[in-house]
Structure formats: C-alpha cells, structure tokens
Amino acid sequence: MPSAPEPARPHGALYPYLRPRLSLGDPLRLVLLGATGSIGLQTLDLVKRNPGRLQLAAVSCRSRVDELAAALAELEAAQPDAPRVLIAVTDANAREQAARIPGWRDRLLSGGEAGLIEAVTQSESPSCLVNALVGAAGLAPTLAGAARGLRIALANKESLVVGGELVARAVAAGGAEVLPVDSEHAAIAQCLSGRDPREVARLVVTASGGPFRTTPAPELATVTLEQVLAHPTWRMGPKITVDSATLMNKGLEVIEAHYLFGLPYDRIDVAVHPGSIVHSLVEFVDGALLAQLGTPDMRMPLQYAIAGEIHWPLATGRLDLLRMGPLVFEAPDLDRFPCLRLAREAGLAGGTAPVILNAANEIAVAALLAGRLRYVDVPGVIADTLARLPRGPVEDLPAALDADARARTEAAVQVDARAAAGH
Ligand code: NAD
Ligand code: MG
C-alpha cells in the first residue's frame, strides 16, 4: 500500500472513514424530524432509556399531534430541567390543534416544510439531527443540518438518493458528519471501523427478500396490499415496507451506500439473506470478509449512529447463535424484482435519474397504499417515468426539487393510465 497521506474522504465519500467523529458535549441534544413515525418513536424510546446522555432540542410530526404530545409530556416529566423543546407540525390542521395544547403555542414553529428547517436552524445548541422523515422531503432538512455542522444520524435514505452530491458538498462545507441509521449501512460502518478505504474490495448489502422472495412470477399480478405489507422480519413504516416488497428499498440502499462509502456501483453487491441476521458485509482486498450480526431491531443501529459510532449499552433481545439456524444467502432475482435493476441503472446514470426514480417510486407506492395501483405495476410506472423525462445534472437544491416535481407529475399520469385500464 502506498505511504501517501490518507485521504479523509475518498472518492467524495460522506462517511468519515479515518476522521475522528465530532466531539460533542454531554448530553447530546437531538433535533428529531418525523418523531411519530417508526424510527421517530424508536428514537424517543432511546431518549427515555438514556436520560443523562440524550435530550431533545426540537421535534416534528406531520399530523399525529396527540401521540407527540403524550410522548413529549412523558419525557418532559422525566427531564424537568432540560431546555424547552421546539415543536414543528407540518400539516396545517394538525398545527391548529397543536396550538391549543397548553404550553405549546409559544414554541410552535412554522407549519409546512419551513417548520422542519426552523427545527434545525432555530433549536438551542443542538448536537445531532435524527432525520426520520420519509421521502425526498428529507433532503432540505439534511442540507440544513449539514450547514449547521451537526452530526446527522440519517435514517432518511432518500436524502442521499435525491441529493447525494449536494449533501456531500454541504457536509464538507459545514463541518458536519453523516452517520448511517439504515441497518445495512450501520453494519458496513461497523465493519469499516478504523479502516483505510483502500483496504476495501467490495460491499455486500444484504436483503431479506421481502414477502415475495419465493412467490412465482405469475402470482405477483394478484397479490393483495395485505400481503405486500406483511414483511417477514422487520416492522417499519408503510413506505419502506412496500419498498422492501418490490426490492426498491435495496436499490435505494445501493445508491445510499455509493454516496456514503464512496465506492463505484460495480463494487456494491446485493445478497438476499432471508433471516435478516447478517446485516451486511465488507470484503477486503485480501479476501477477508467481515459481517455484523444481530437481531432485527432498529434501535441498535439508531443508537450507534446517534452516539457517534460508540456501542452504548442497550437492553434488547440478544441473538442466540445456537438457535438461529443456518445462514442462507441467494442472488437477487432481477426479473421478478425489476425495481432493483432500475435503481442500479439510475444510480449509475447519476444526475437527475435517481431523483426521477425516487419521485416516481414515491407516487407509485402512495397509489399502491391507496389501492389504486397493483403491486406488479410499480416498476412500470417508474420505468415509463424515467423513459419520458429528460435527464440533467443536479447542481443545487432547486434543480433537485424541480426534477422531483416533474417526475411526480409524470408518474401520476402513469398511475392514472394503469388505474383507468382497470388494473
Ligand atoms: P414512517 O412513515 O413510520 O414515519 C415517517 C415520519 O415522517 C412520520 O412522523 C411522518 O409524519 C413524517 N413525514 C413523512 N413525510 C413528511 C413530510 N412530507 N413532511 C413532514 N413530515 C413527514 O417512516 P419510517 O419507517 O420511520 O421511515 C423513516 C425513514 O427511515 C425512511 O427514509 C426509511 O426508509 C428509513 N428507514 C426506516 C426503517 C424502519 O425500520 N422503519 C429502517 C431503515 C430505514
Ligand atoms: Mg435497510
């Protein structure tokens, strides 16, 4: 290996390979966006479990104000001396309801997406942004967190799919750091701990395979929404659960891994591993393969990212090696799951291609969840949207948002055409 100085950010990687993690005082003050979602609620659970170490600086929800109020009241009773928590409620009606909650009016931020940005920029001495939003809506808050120099515990993978280059630039300029929450990327980060990127041969991102791993192709045309949502190993929010059934989630994760770890797409492989025990692997240039194993519990990777890649104690179920059974790995079937191929192609093409892919997928998933689109029609909506729109570079946030908006409009047309055809 050459003895030249080690590059801290190889190939523009977001992940701070050899750099020390930000040194942040105790307790860590969290800006938690998407507090009432699956990752959001698990973050609140971690705050409750780590009273000396974690505090809230700001929280956001879209509409589940009652749930947020209950969770916040419990935390504030347990931490009476903690500074006041700012609150953003994005939905207009829900925000009116929130303004009537005693003690909330004078700490309620703007409605809509502006409130998400204010949570990041106006909170008092925050240390870490936990971005648990779903979809491209997470990008602008990620960029705001980067500009403020925060540690970003990133669950919102769409931030990187839509604006990977923008986030990399903003993180470098703001002196921020991005640590992955996604279990696969947190596993890779643990395998890479203290490693020089030049030691790495390839990444192997594991996939559960979803509920249709063994379903024959002809049967995919008639699967129900209930079957789509029956994920075999993880309990998650609705969008990522659908993405796991189409394998689009794995496609988005390949793009996420590309930006995080700075490796080209031909060195990021996917292996279907039905048990969700091996969370991902890294192969080094000498053939050594490191893996991270554990039970499927998102609080593990979530806490690891928030803590700045330190293993704090966590009382959760332990993996019983003697009872877990054999570890099985299979190649993904790109014919039955074309979304994985589409995502790889869009990632390789770069520019607005992954923006269009992501937006079309968000529209298709929403239509599927609303009962307007069949499972089997999701890839077609995405492929046709990609085929119909021009591609370009993503120089800045407005360029990304513009491509996102155009793709949503086109994807809605594609959904309508399929709904009108009576599918
Ligand atoms: P979820 O649907 O359960 O929660 C999303 C949260 O974001 C909710 O609080 C919702 O109100 C809010 N939100 C959504 N869209 C918004 C918008 N446009 N403006 C403002 N708020 C909005 O989702 P989740 O499953 O917690 O997933 C969050 C992110 O974490 C996703 O990017 C997902 O891919 C990723 N992730 C989740 C898991 C998991 O186990 N749930 C695992 C790995 C990665
Ligand atoms: Mg994942």
Protein model, in words:
The chain is globular. The chain contains 15 helices and 10 strands. It folds into 3 domains: 28-185, Rossmann fold (3-Layer(aba) Sandwich), CATH 3.40.50.720; 191-297, no CATH class; 338-420, RNA polymerase sigma factor, region 2, helix turn helix motif (Rna Polymerase Sigma Factor, Chain: A), CATH 1.10.1740.10. The protein is α/β, with parallel strands linked by helices and 423 residues long. Bound molecules: nicotinamide-adenine-dinucleotide and magnesium ion. Residues 34, 36-40, 61-62, 90, 132-135, 137, 155-158, 182, 234, 236-240, 298 line the site of nicotinamide-adenine-dinucleotide.
In short:
With 423 residues, this protein is of the alpha/beta class.
Features:
423 residues; 3 domains; Rna Polymerase Sigma Factor, Chain: A; binds nicotinamide-adenine-dinucleotide; alpha/beta; disordered N terminus; binds magnesium ion; four-stranded mixed sheet; Rossmann fold; six-stranded parallel sheet
